[in-house]
Structure formats: C-alpha cells, structure tokens
Amino acid sequence: MPKIAPTRRSEVSATLWAYRREFLLAGLLSSLINLLLLTPTLYMLQVYDRVMLSQSELTLVAVSLIALLMYALMACAEWWRTRVLVRTGMRFDEQLSTRVFNASFEANLNQSASAPARAFGDLIQIRQFLTGQGLFAFFDAPWTPIYIAVAFFLHPWLGALSLVFVLVQAVLAWFGHRYTVTPAEQAARAGNDSSSYLQEKLRNAEVIEAMGMSAPLQQRWSSLHRTWLAQHETAQGLQHRVAAWSKFIRYSQQSLTLGAGALLVIKGQLSPGAMIASNVLMGRALAPLDQLVSGWRSFVSAKAALLRLEALLREHPPRDVALQRVAPSGAISLQQVTASAPGRQSPILKRLSFSVPAGSVVVVLGPSGSGKSTLARVLTGIWPDVSGEVLLDGLPLSQWSRDELGPHVGYLPQDVELFEGTIAENIARLGEVDSAQVIAAARSTGMHEAILRFPKGYDTLIGEAGNLLSGGQRQRIGLARAIYGSPSLLVLDEPNANLDDAGEVALLRTVRERKAQGTTVFLITHRRGVLAVADRLIVLDQGEIKADGPTAAVLASLQDAA
What is the pTM of this model? Predict the structure, then answer.
C-alpha cells in the first residue's frame, strides 16, 4: 500500500503550530478557570442549604474564605492566560511582519494583488483574534457539556432545560453565521471601494479643481457611497435582529430556569440553594455560546485573513538570504525576452535579444507606446510577466538577491517619487547617509548649489521642500539617487523630460562620468540630444527592435530608410 505523504503546513500555519505549547498552556488555564467558575454555584449551595439551616457563623466565614481563595486563584489564572496569549500574539506578529512586508512589496511590484497593503491588516486581525474574547470562547465552549451534566446532577428536568436552551442558542449561532456574515462582508467591500475611490481621486485634487471635474466625480462617489449605505443597513439590520433574539433567549433562560427551580422546590424535589445555584450554573453553560455568537464574525474574519495571508506568502516565497554574489560588472544580455501585461492580447515586448558589454552607453529611442519604459523595467528585473532570460554578468536576474543587487543598480523612472525624509536621505536611498557620496552624486547632477540654497541644505525635509522643488529639480535629485554609490548598471527612463538646457548638460556630464567609471548606462528617451554620449543606439517600434548598432550607423540607416 503506497504511503501518503504528510500534508505540508503553510508558512502561517507552521508559525502558529510553533506556539502550540503556549496555546496548550492557555487551554489548561481555561480549564482551571472554568472549573473555578463552579465556585459561585457551590458557595450558594453551602450558604442556602448548610449555613442558613445551621445558623453557624464559623461555617459561613470558612466557606466565604474558601470562595475568596478560589476567586483569587481564578483571577491569577485569567491574568496568566491573557498574558500568555498577548505575548504569543506579539511574537507571532514579529515573526511574520518582515515576511509580510516583503511579500506585500513584491505583490504590489508585480501587480498580483488588488490591495497588497491589506496583508498588514490581515496580520493584525489574526493577532487580535489570538488575544481576544473569540479565542477564549473556543477554550470555554468544551465546558458547556460539563455544566449541563452538573445541572442534570441537581435535577434531570434542570439538565433537560439547559440542553434545550443550548440547542436553541446553537441554532441561533448557525443562523447568524449563515445569514449575517455574507452581507457584512459585502458591506465592508462596498465601504472599501467607496473610500479607495475617494482617496485615489484626492491625490489629483489640483487637476480636478483646475478643470472643474469635482461635480462628476462627486456623483460617482455618491453612487458608491449609497451602495455602501444600503448594504450596511441590511447587514446591521440582520445583526441587530440576531442580537435581539439572543437577548430574548438569555433573559428567557434566566427566568424560566428560576421558575422551573421554584416549581421543583414547591414539590419538594429541590432545595432553595440548588434552585439559585442552577440558575447561575445555566448562565455559565450558555456564556461560551453567547461569546461564540458575538465572536463568530471575528472568527470568520480571522479565518479569511489567514487564508489571504497564506496565499500571499505562498505566491511570494522568501528569497535565499544566504545567496552571495560577486559585485556585477554591468554586462547585460537579453535572450528571447517577451514582456506581457494583464488585459493585453499582444505582448508589449516581443522576443528581444541583444548583449551589451560592461561600460557601454546605450540609448533606446522609439515612439510613445513602443515599449521603452517596459524595457527599462525588464532591465532592472521589476517587470512581473517576462519570458526569456535577462542576464547580468551571465546570471539570470531572478537568481540575485534584490537586497544584494540593489546597491549595484541605479534606476530613474519617468515619474520620480521622493520619499519622506531629508534630501540627503533620499539621495542615499533611505539608508545610512554617506555624506561624501551624497555630495558627489549631487555635484554630478548639478544640484549641489541648489540644495545649499535651501534653509537646511541637505537636511531639508522633502515634505517641506516638496512645493519648492520644480520638476527638473525632482528629476535631478532622482538622478543623484540613481547614481549614488557608483552602481554597475544605470537605467534612466526619460531622464531629460523635465530638464532645461543646463539640466541636460549636467545629465550628459553625469553619463560621461559613469561611463568613465565602467558603468553600463541605458538611456530611454525620445529626445535625440543625448545621442552625443551613446556608444550604441537601439530603436524600438511596437515592441520590436527596428534598428540596433553603433549610433552613427543606425542614424544613417534610418535616414536612408526615410
């Protein structure tokens, strides 16, 4: 008979399994707490059936002291259980937070998730469930049959009544799960859609205001908002109805149990102490079910968060941090590279193949939509859907650790994004600031003097200087960030789009300096002013190489073709 291979746990499940001892300890403490919760029942039995009959003050004092001791022990167990679970939740968060950050970053980069930042919310949701009342309810639920058994011990009719109420409460819990979870999730999604739409449009508030687009945008947002309100009203209505029925059952249980006990006392089948104790006992039997009903939504949400987190980490496994490479020289080779994008029938780049030796300056020309920016992303290894091979020093980019490769790559995208922090920190790529290298990079791009004119110089916060920087200055700071640390590969996508004549002169000087230091430079542009520094010219058209070779030869062939 063939052996069945054991199912491998997911990364999140394996992390939770690593804390099985902590959860076992919390379960044992829950058992102790629930056992001690029988103290009020036993105390009432002793007071009503023993102390009241014997009129013994000494017995009352002794019973009360024992009860207080049990309550103190229960409080310590409650504190210990909470402390264990809170610490477990914090350690769980710390252990997975880096992985979730890296996986979310990759998901956002690869555009493989609609909201990768939600993963952090999922992690928090799981941690909060591990430390909240929902988990306590699961620990306490197994004690419900024990409480019912004690009620049967007091009297069979009381046990039967307890069983009936437990079944009714269980049916209510099932109903609440089946009919309220889906509307609540739909309302949450509608609320997220409305909020995301508004936040996305507010990023372009200047364009909206300048061209009078606020009215139609407000109408679209109002439509989304009304959808959310309607679904929210439906979900809340169902939840309130379930909560109202739960209260009705709970109050009915308290009164009917007391009434049934009183009837048994009248018939001489139960003592007054047992009557009061049974009421308290039945309340304890239904308490975990009440907690399950109220906490079921948090359990379902935590389970959904767990599944989403497992899928995210499974799709983006950890990189080999032990992988070490020699610093690359910058030689690039593309072998039958095809780049595609979701929603497009034809590829953006079609079977591109070329090799560039280290220290070369390559200019890529082409009309809009020819695939130039996609080629820039492919060269840096950040385009998600690529077939073929992109080799750096003969090794596929996928085999490099990004943290290790990053300092050897400089990239200037079309849309330059500067991050929160100082100008020096932005140029230093948000790492440890090497003042000499920061100033050298700024001087190379011609921004040193302009930076010094700011009130705090290189220590000026980008948030403060954001409105003071022109498009050209942003591009130059982005260029300084790209060349910081003398990378081996430099990919510049439309680096002169916002530059004036002085800025373009500084750009050409920077490229010449990088070439003199052996850096491989790719200049993606539609302006031919940078051709003076090019060793090689590649012309793209509709994702294919139309011309490739030495600059002068390619220009001559294009002129002959024209």
Answer: 0.64
